[in-house]
Structure formats: C-alpha cells, structure tokens
Amino acid sequence: MRNFNKLSLFLMKVLEIFLLVLFFVLLVFIVKWRIDHLYANSINNGEVDFKIKDEFIKTKTEILGLMGKTDEEYKIPVVKEREIEPNKKESIIINVPANTDKDSLGEILMSKNLIADINEYNRLVDDMGIAEKILPGHYEIKEGMKVKEILSDISGNVLHEYKFNISEGASAADVGNMLEDIGMIESSYAFVEKCKEMNKTQFVPGEHHVTMPLKVAKIIEQITV
Questions:
Q1: C-alpha span between 95 and 113 (Å, rounded)
Q2: Distance from the CA of 136 to the CA of which of 3, 34, 63, 211 falls in 20 to 30 A?
Q3: pLDDT at position 81
Q4: What are phi and psi of 192, to 5 degrees?
Q5: How far is CA 117 from CA 47, 105, 107, 123, 144, in A?
C-alpha cells in the first residue's frame, strides 16, 4: 500500500511537471507566433494571412532544418492586399406625398432632424420662392447636405451661383437685361417693375455673387443700396 501511494505521488508529480512544461511550451509558441506575424507584416505591403497553423508549419520546418532532415525554407503565406473601404456617406430617404405644402414639408424635415429651426426654414422657403413648387416623390438626403440644397431638390431646382458685374450708374433696365441674358431671371421687365415697387434704383457697382433659386425681390435687396 505504501509503495502504491509513493507511485501515485510520483505520477502526480510527473503529471504536474508535464502540464507546466506543456503550458510553457504553448506560451512560447504563441509568443513566437505573434512575433512572426508582426515580422511578416512588417516586410510586406498589405496584410499577411499568417494563422496559427502557419506557425506550426514554420516551426516544424525550422526544427527539421536544425536536425538536418530538410533543406526546405519556410515561405511566408500569400499576401492579401488591404481593401480600402470607399468613403461612404450615410443618407436617408424621405417621402414627400402629393399635395404637400410648405408647413407639411417643414414637419417632415423636422421629424428627420434635417432642420432645427422652423422659422429659419420658413424664411428660406420664402426667399427661394418655392412654397408653391414642392414636388412629391422620394428623395435621398445625403449626409452634409445643406437645407438650401434639400429644398432645391424637392422643388425641382438646381443650386447655381451666378457671378456678374454691375457698372457704375447702371439703371434697373440695364441690370434687368443683363440678368435676363445670363439666364438668372425670366423677365427684365418684371425685374424693373419690382425695383420700382420696392423703390430701389441705386445698384452697388462691382462683382456680385448670387445663388439661385431666389425671389426677384431678394436679388434686388442683395445688389442695391
């Protein structure tokens, strides 16, 4: 019985030593795998597909080489080129039903967090003159779009910046004809009549930048004294 106990203790001690050695070997192997993985990536352009099974093969090849049983050299696995994701921008789709008016559109945009101030929204719609031009449909609103761009899409317009020069002492008719010629307004006559109605006759000379769509009255406000 005493001999059996001694044998049991001896076997337990051997097993304990074996487990410790096995743990140490596994630890060394994992560290070696990570070092080899980092090294393989450092000498290649891209991401090396270097898995644990590759480390087993590499280690086996190295051991056989040290024992003189093989002349083969381990080759690093095929390199996978890093795939760069395109710069995607998030977008949302809004639905504008038929017969949507300015107020209803404001509620839709507010519910989607596309506008923050309903009063500023109403002012912009009025300045652009699109209250009666809202078109039903589905619209893709991309991240970063400005409110003016959104309203331009929904009203079937394209934002366009016009650049023009006004000469010193130019009359309303002169300016109206020029704006009609460049396609900024439809009628120079209506422009002149609006100038009279607003009592605006003195135009600021020099270069002007006006983004359309914009009501004629707002154009006049921007370019007159």
A1: 14
A2: 211
A3: 42
A4: -65, -45
A5: 48, 13, 11, 10, 17
Task: Please tell me the pTM assigned to this model.
Answer: 0.58
The pair of structure tokens assigned to 176 is 């109206």
CA atoms of 59 and 56, how far apart (whole Å) = 5
CB 210 within 8 A of CB 222: yes
- For residue 133, give the amino acid letter: K
Alpha-helical regions (H) of the chain: 2-42, 52-66, 102-111, 118-128, 147-154, 172-181, 188-198, 216-223
Read off the pLDDT of residues 178-192 as tens digits, 9 standing for 90 and up: 999 999 999 999 999
Is residue 86 reached through a cis peptide bond, with omega within 30 degrees of 0 on the bond before it?
no
Q: Which of 31-40, 147-156, 183-192, 213-222 has the lowest mean pLDDT?
A: 31-40
CA contacts within 13 A on the Cβ side of 169: 0
What is the distance between the alpha carbons of residues 160 and 188, in angstroms, rounded to a whole number?
A: 19
